[in-house]
Amino acid sequence: MRHELYRVTDLPVLQNRTFADPASAQASASADMLLVQDERSGLIFNAAFDAGKLSYDADYQNEQAHSGQFQKHLSDVEGIIAKHFKGQELIEVGCGKGYFLELLKGLGYSITGIDPAYEGGNADVIKAPFTRGLGLAADAIVLRHVLEHIQDPVSFLAEMANANQGGQIYIEVPCFDWILEHKAWFDLFYEHVNYFRLDDLRRMFGTVHEAGHLFGGQYLYIVADLSTLRLTPDQPVPRLSLPDGFTASLDRAVQIIQSAPEQGSAIWGASSKGVIYSLFLQRAGVAVDRVVDINPAKQGRYLPLSGARVSSPQEAMDALPEGANLFVMNSNYLEEIKRMTGGRYVYHAVDSASFQ
Description:
Oligomer: single chain
């Protein structure tokens, strides 16, 4: 049995894919979300998800490491990994473009990456799924921002436990409790089929060495013994419901923009959150003047469905008048953005309690 939590139509299938022109962006694929909770496992997922719709290519761009704030986060993650796995053989499953793997290698870790979609030239990355057939095993597995993309996460972990013959695991995923607490409706994406709470991760393992929050509470992590994976929880799971006014902040943003259109406005952050936010503002009948991102690979390109063009910070600052409304998609970067823009704008951290 499952019960419905949230329903939304026509989300971008790949929210971090950018396009060379507005027409291609506006014609890009969309799909629906039906967020439900499984009453037995307690897990939250999109029951309308179809993995066959997802196809990653060179136009998919999700690199966050251009930000000093995010580099600090990666340093925090390395500290946890060092505490538990220093001097051990590691495998990073789903290593993406290999940024974190290379960071660990530079610090002296013995680590192999596994990712069928890897496009770089690092000989320590194997472009294949992690199976027993690879004949590869390590003391511990690193699994960062992978599990939210996997349709059956418990079976996936069981396959990894079998492939690695047990061992320890570090898992990091976005935190659904943070999304609920901050009413961050713009943090729900088609590409993320699963949404985890800390209790969900704890229930999955018999032996948990450490668990907690990272990145200002937006991410969860757990260090556990992979061989103690539970296929189903051993206790009943409480039923979840969304908070009242979960999407009310969208109306607030519309009101701010409409009340002083001559003031100018921009969304800062053209990754997942900014893609959803700009799209829903557009559907509510308003548009910001700029969508800004510090990632050069996004600049001058167009966001899915909305067709919004991404500006560099300098381009945006040259165009926006002093006192323009800046909708900051992630409050973790607020102080960094204020410094970069000289404090000349009105800043709205849309995930903060003051904006709800």
